[in-house]
Design brief:
The complex is a heterotrimer. Chain A is an alpha+beta fold. Chain A has 17 helices and 21 strands. The radius of gyration of chain A is 25 Å and the shape is globular. The relative contact order of chain A is 0.16. Chain B is mainly α. Helices cover 69% and strands 0% of the residues of chain B. Chain B has 11 helices and no strands. Chain B has helices at residues 25-35, 37-59, 91-127, 129-144, 147-166, 168-182, 185-199, 203-210, 215-251, 263-270, 279-306. Chain B starts with 24 loop residues before the first helix and ends in an 8-residue tail after the last helix. The relative contact order of chain B is 0.17. Chain C is mostly helical. Chain C is built from 14 helices and no strands. Chain C has helices at 2-29, 36-39, 46-55, 62-74, 88-123, 128-142, 145-159, 176-213, 216-223, 228-251, 254-257, 260-266, 271-280, 284-312. Chain C starts with a helix and ends in a 7-residue tail after the last helix. Chains in contact: A-B, A-C, B-C. The interface between B and C is large, with 60 and 66 residues.
């Protein structure tokens, strides 16, 4: 899909012939994100939609206790040191950003008085700055007023490399200027197409200057407030036991009327996803459980006659199989999968094409993931006239056999195909997770029918996803032929996601395997498109570039998308919650209520 | 037999063989073992299980990894005598295949743990003094080692080496058995030592010493047979623990690949479907139970066979 | 005897130091990274991760790190967790009451079940009682705790809806309701764990009592006219306690590190789950602190067991 077709679609939304939601879903299917889609619409003058959750209670409090279950527990409560969404979610109970992303990719204001647009003067026309107007009359939990100083401080705190904050990527290339006590102006040192990153969403939670000022830079981890947060959020801090439980109570001075509904909140951590689902859906001991990575069959059985249900919302996460373009079995200067080698089989496009035909996505969706995984080749949700024929997903063992045969890979006496003495015997790794192991089993079986033998390997998640330089089993070392995991797209802009196909990002010993390009694929055209997207200000043009980059990746079968992984939560039947796939589970915590 | 003094013989239990030539300890023990009904039963069950897992896959030809979604989670039927799992794979075939590994790992790891434990405990208990001290401090060290980081480290260091030397499957097998057995010998050592500490003071041992028996003979012929009680119990417990430990290792990605259906692994995979498809878990659980049961009866038989004051009189 | 005790105590100190050095080395060499979550986050530049590692001294040589750790331990500073920046002793103390309550009760339950049942089984071997007890014991330890735990949850929480299965250490209730709620939620984890440990212990007790019950002095006691109960209780069981004492000395320290699966299933915030999450997060200070306490317990309790042997069986002497 190119720029012209995109503009046609946007016009259809403007004229009402295509729903906003459908447009956003299509963009997601093309590899973009909802926030970017929303930005495209806004730039074309399509007004933002309002959040749909109707808030019914007419007074603050009285709702009793809200009990939520996370099966990974928070270990600290400073969002800018978070090692995972659990810490961000735990912090989000108490802290708030200026705005959050709703499920359709629109911005919903929290501490901002209104969302900056070109029309109200918030967004500069040259894309070099954004002016945020802050809400007046907001107070921190300890009574001090919230002002622009806090925003400026938060920027300085995070941008300081000595703080070693995980949010630094968002704040290091900007300058924040205080205009008056309730207005700030964010200057971008270079034109930044995606302006809504700083102070928005999980990386945008504002910290109180008066409590953190003494703990900047390398003293940052010693701040007592890291464990006893003081924020502006709907609940005040009561207790925190790292690795176990976070407790909060109603904030009587919360800046939105009639909110929050609940008197106390308790976030318990630990255990596994299946028993968490049971606790919400079957026994009703808890009201909400996060990230239900549970097989859909089991969820469905629990829901029958249960006290809760699964709540599923689209996000950008895709479970991928990656092809290694280098040789993991040859050692070059103490490094395997070195960029100096070539994979004996996977560099042959026919082999990759065959592999793509051997992934039975429909079965994986139906039998393993159910509602929690949607089969994709990246083009599922597009309206028919925009779907390119060559990128449909297909499962065809016969055809795979033919493709391999035609490319010269003949079956040997042991049933395994080989060419020039190189056999199609691969090691296929992923993290330890029942659904993943089942997917592996399905792929292995189909591959066996096409003459490819696979040895399955599963690595415990904490090792697989670690950045340990010495450990050969990490996903970034990629010392196997193919591997599978979910690439997350919870950041609102696809640019960072696309980095993982850039030549300069190839993971290697030199950069201690911290490079983002795990497949070690190198393609000049992709690199050119990426550079162009970095400078492009027009969101529609930019989106077209991203779509082209995504097309390239899919056509070259660099990665094989398996299923979309939406966000799944278990929610008690009487609890009213709206989830967003582009922000924290708690983006809308102040609006949660229970039907009496 | 030189073990029990005449005054310790009781009228009730001793069966005197008809032949006048006194048979050796071990042949006498074997004869007794054969006659012990429960031991025979245990041996029979174990033997049939071993035969089943070795020969079964040759006879019962249903493949272990044939995925058939239309037949998932079905109970026992003509086509699938033990039912199917959540991918439609046949449970019986998987159990027969994985049983080889489970039984082999369980018994091998148990034997390693027992052998090391008995050797260490006997030496420490018999010689006492500085030997005892040193061995017990080494035992303490092993008890204190945190198992998980140690496992990760050992697997990380030795997996490739062993795979290259012995081939992928044998290499992983040796690694797992060594690791599981090597971390379970300590309780056995302490128990055996405790037995030895009290037994060595008993009169029959003093008598043997007085008659000039060297330490090794004292231990093997005289003391050890009487110390086997806790060893046998530890052995049965270790078999079950080893089978389960293997599945924990595979769960952590350190053992056999996840698609190899060892009994512990099947139990683990089946646990989330317990309310819906209990057959999937009941069969491997029963298999582990039977293994443990048969080893226990064999052990009881061994103990009775070696002990003149045997428990069951026939 | 007191010389023996003194000697053993003095030796314990270098032993513990040696053990801690080996533990530390193993931890330092094992794969894994405290900052693994940062790896999957495209926003975090490599320099940030590297500087975090340097800051916590993770890239220093092992010897240096060990000496640093040992020195601070001697001063009473147990360090702080890499993940949460909370002092390690605070973390442990937060979890100690729950651990003692749940795991301690489980071990107690195990012993209380094992001693009488094991003894009765031994007194009447191969009787109906013995067969049933044996079978139950086998089922008890052939089935892993994740399995029995799940069975309990399915039956008592989901099917019968009698007991909650998520353990919450802070229950906001007062008076007798507070205790009642605590008991209700502790019943299942205590039962699961206690029965698992009790099953194995029963077998050991049975075997040990069987060993002594046929001995002469027992018959002597009976011949003297002592009642069967007194005979068994005073004479047989006492000698049979030797293996039990050995096992208890090995089992009590596992309050600190064992029962990980049970703690995970029921979400009991015990020290075992703290240890396992620290191991998975490669949080060395926490791991070292807990395993060091564990080592001290092991060494001390084994010493106590050795001393108890002398009391239980007067024939054992110490040199």
């Amino acid at each position: 899909m190119d720029e012209r077709e995109l503009r046609t679609m946007i016009d259809e939304v403007k004229s009402g012939r295509l729903s906003r939601r459908r447009f956003v879903q299509t963009m997601i299917g093309l590899g973009l994100t909802a926030p970017l889609a929303s930005q495209m619409l806004t730039s074309a003058g399509v007004a933002q939609a309002q959040s749909k959750l109707a808030y019914k209670p007419t007074k603050r409090g009285g709702g009793g206790a809200l009990k939520v279950l996370w099966w990974q527990s928070a270990t600290l409560l400073n969002p800018h040191f978070a090692t995972g969404t659990k810490d961000q979610d735990g912090s989000r109970i108490f802290y708030e950003p200026l705005a959050s992303w709703d499920p359709d990719g629109n911005l919903a204001p929290n501490l901002a008085a209104e969302i900056p647009t070109v029309q109200n003067g918030g967004l500069a026309k040259d894309g070099k700055s954004v002016t945020w107007k802050l809400k007046k009359g907001v107070a921190w939990h300890d009574g001090k007023p919230f002002t622009a100083d806090d925003c400026v401080f938060t920027w300085e705190y995070i941008a300081d490399p000595a703080t070693a904050s995980v949010s630094i990527g968002t704040y290091k290339d900007i300058k924040v200027e205080k205009v008056d006590t309730h207005t700030i102006k964010v200057h971008f040192t270079k034109s930044v197409p995606f302006w809504a990153d700083a102070f928005v969403g999980v990386r945008g939670m504002i910290l109180p200057k008066h409590l953190f000022a003494a703990f900047k830079g390398d003293k940052s981890r010693e701040a007592p407030t890291n464990l006893k947060p003081v924020g502006t959020g709907p609940y005040r801090f009561v207790d925190f036991k790292p690795g176990d439980i976070v407790r909060g109570e109603l904030n009587p001075n919360y800046h939105m009327p009639n909110r929050p509904y609940f008197d106390t909140i308790e976030m318990k951590g630990g255990g596994d996803a299946t028993s968490a689902a049971r606790a919400v859906i079957q026994t009703g001991e808890f009201d909400y459980a996060w990230n239900m990575q549970v097989e859909d069959d089991i969820l469905k059985r629990m829901e029958q006659g249960g006290k809760g249900k699964s709540d599923i919302v689209a996000g950008g996460n895709i479970e991928h199989i990656q092809c290694n373009f280098t040789d993991p079995w040859t050692d070059v200067d103490g490094e395997r999968s070195s960029a100096k080698t070539k994979h004996p089989a996977l560099t042959d496009p026919a082999v990759r094409q065959a592999l793509n035909l051997l992934v039975d996505r429909a079965s994986v969706q139906e039998q393993i993931y159910g509602r929690t995984g949607i089969a994709t080749a990246n083009f599922l949700n597009a309206p028919p006239r925009f779907v390119s024929k060559s990128t449909k997903y297909e499962f065809n063992v016969e055809k795979a056999n033919q493709v391999l045969e035609a490319a010269g890979w003949k079956k040997g006496p042991d049933g395994i195909r080989a060419k020039d003495g190189k056999k199609l015997k691969w090691v296929y790794q992923t993290s330890t997770n029942p659904s993943r192991q089942k997917t592996q089993a399905i792929v292995k079986q189909a591959a066996a029918k096409a003459g490819i033998e696979m040895e399955l390997k599963s690595v415990v998640a904490s090792v697989y996803f670690s950045s340990d330089v010495a450990n050969p089993d990490t996903y970034s070392h990629f010392y196997t032929d193919i591997q599978m995991y979910t690439t997350t797209m919870t950041q609102p802009d696809p640019e960072l996601f696309m980095r993982q196909f850039l030549t300069e990002e190839v993971a290697s010993k030199d950069n201690k395997w911290q490079g983002r390009n795990i497949t070690r694929w190198r393609n000049e055209e992709f690199d050119k498109l990426f550079k162009a997207s970095e400078a492009e200000l027009d969101p529609v043009k930019r989106a077209a570039l991203f779509i082209k980059m995504n097309d390239l990746v899919i056509q070259h079968v660099v990665v094989i998308p398996v299923v979309f992984r939406p966000r799944v939560a278990a929610v008690s039947n009487r609890l009213h919650v709206e989830q967003s796939g582009w922000d924290s589970d708690f983006w809308n915590l102040h609006n949660w209520y229970r039907e009496a | 037999m030189a073990r029990a003094l005449p005054s310790e013989r009781l009228a009730t239990d001793v069966r005197v063989p008809a032949r006048r030539t006194s048979p050796s300890l071990w042949s006498e023990a074997f004869r007794r073992f054969r006659k012990h009904r429960l031991a025979a039963f245990g041996a029979l069950v174990l033997l049939s299980m071993v035969v089943a897992v070795l020969a079964g896959p040759l006879v019962y030809r249903v493949p272990i990894d044939e995925i058939d979604f239309k037949a998932k989670l079905r109970g026992p039927s003509a086509a699938h005598p033990l039912g199917t799992d959540d991918l439609g794979q046949d449970v019986l075939a998987r159990m027969l295949y994985g049983g080889r590994i489970s039984l082999a790992v369980g018994i091998a790891a148990m034997l390693i743990a027992i052998t090391i434990g008995v050797a260490v405990g006997a030496t420490a208990g018999h010689f006492a003094g500085i030997v005892d001290h040193t061995l017990m401090r080494i035992t303490d060290l092993f008890i204190c080692l945190p198992q998980l980081p140690l496992l990760l480290l050992i697997v990380y260091l030795f997996r490739e080496v062993l795979k290259k030397a012995l081939g992928p499957e044998a290499g992983v097998f040796v690694l797992i058995v060594a690791v599981i057995g090597g971390l379970r010998w300590m309780p056995v050592a302490r128990l055996v030592r405790a037995q030895f500490l009290s037994l060595r003071e008993q009169q029959f041992v003093e008598a043997a010493r007085g008659l000039g028996a060297p330490p090794f003979r004292q231990v093997i012929r005289h003391i050890l047979p009487n110390a086997m009680g806790p060893v046998i119990v530890a052995g049965t417990i270790d078999v079950a623990a080893a089978i389960i430990a293997e599945s924990s290792l595979s769960f952590l990605g350190l053992g056999f690949p996840p698609d190899i259906p060892t009994w512990g692994r099947i139990l683990f995979d089946a646990k989330d479907n317990l309310d819906f498809a209990p057959h999937w878990a009941i069969f491997p659980g029963t298999a582990i139970f039977l293994t443990v049961l048969s080893i226990n009866y064999i052990g009881d038989g061994l103990r009775d066979a070696l002990d003149p004051r045997k428990v069951l009189s026939h | 005897m007191s010389k023996y005790l003194l000697r053993r105590l003095l030796i314990s100190i270098p032993v513990l130091a040696g053990i801690s050095l080996i533990l530390f080395t193993i931890l330092a060499m094992a794969p894994g990274d405290p900052f693994e979550e940062l790896a999957t986050n495209p926003n975090v530049p490599a320099e940030v991760r590297m500087s975090l590692r340097a800051k916590f001294g993770l890239d220093d040589p092992i010897g240096v790190r060990y000496v640093r750790w040992f020195g601070s331990m001697l001063r009473g500073d147990w360090g702080f967790s890499f993940s949460s920046r909370v002092n390690v002793d605070t973390l442990i103390l937060q979890r100690l009451p729950t651990t003692l309550l749940v795991l301690g009760s489980a071990q107690l339950l195990g012993v209380l079940v094992a001693l009488p049942i094991g003894t009765m089984s031994a007194v009447r071997p191969y009787s109906v009682f013995d067969q049933i007890a044996t079978t139950l014991a086998f089922i008890g330890f052939s089935l892993p705790t994740f399995f029995t735990g799940l069975l309990f949850i399915l039956f008592f929480s989901i099917y019968l809806d009698w007991l909650p299965f998520i353990y919450r250490a802070d229950i906001s209730a007062t008076g007798w309701r507070f205790y009642w709620e605590h008991v209700r939620q502790a019943i299942m984890p205590v039962a699961v764990l206690g029965l698992f440990q009790g099953a194995a212990l029963t077998r050991f007790v049975r075997s040990a009592v069987l060993d002594v019950i046929r001995l002469d002095y027992i018959n002597t006691a009976r011949a003297k006219g002592l009642s069967e109960q007194v005979t068994i209780a005073k004479h047989a069981v006492r000698n049979a306690l030797i293996p039990v004492v050995t096992l208890m000395a090995l089992q009590i320290p596992t309050i600190f590190t064992g029962a990980v699966i049970t703690e995970q299933i029921f979400r009991v915030p015990g020290i075992g789950s703290l240890l396992i999450s620290a191991i998975l997060a490669n949080d060395t200070p926490v791991i070292m602190a807990i395993t060091f306490v564990f080592s001290c317990l092991v060494v001390t309790l084994n010493l106590a067991a050795d001393l108890l042997y002398g009391w239980l069986d007067p024939r054992i002497s110490y040199r």
